Write a sequence for this structure.
């Protein structure tokens, strides 16, 4: 069994920075994709970044240059915009050789955290 817990969200002025953490407990699979998703009210859950078990990272075009996923699964965010406001989730797709890039879909992922809220004020 795997458990994930996100932390680091909060209310931030536009242009500010946050670092979101994803703490994983339980069995750590040899092959996996760890993804960060966000979901704003009335919108679909959107993949923003991922890293696989070989530490190969991917970032969505909408956040590229501002969001960075680290080898320890943190999501470093700078230059926050109001449109970044959302609930942010980390998730694991187990027993896969790599991530999916822009084809990453929430339904692929086996384990999810409860989310951490990011609110950006202009």
């Amino acid at each position: 069994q795997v458990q994930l817990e996100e932390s680091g969200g909060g209310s931030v002025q536009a242009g500010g920075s946050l670092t979101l953490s994803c703490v994983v407990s339980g069995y750590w699979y040899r092959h996996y994709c760890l993804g960060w998703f966000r979901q704003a009210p009335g919108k679909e859950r959107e993949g923003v970044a991922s890293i696989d078990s070989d530490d190969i990272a991917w970032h969505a075009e909408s956040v590229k240059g501002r969001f960075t996923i680290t080898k320890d699964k943190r999501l470093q965010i700078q230059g926050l915009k109001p449109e970044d406001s959302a609930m942010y989730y980390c998730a694991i797709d187990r027993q896969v050789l790599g991530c999916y890039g822009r084809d990453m879909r929430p339904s692929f992922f086996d384990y999810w955290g409860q989310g951490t809220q990011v609110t950006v004020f202009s």
In short: The first strand starts at residue 2 and ends at 7. The chain has a mean pLDDT of 95. The CA atoms of residues 48 and 61 lie 8 Å apart.
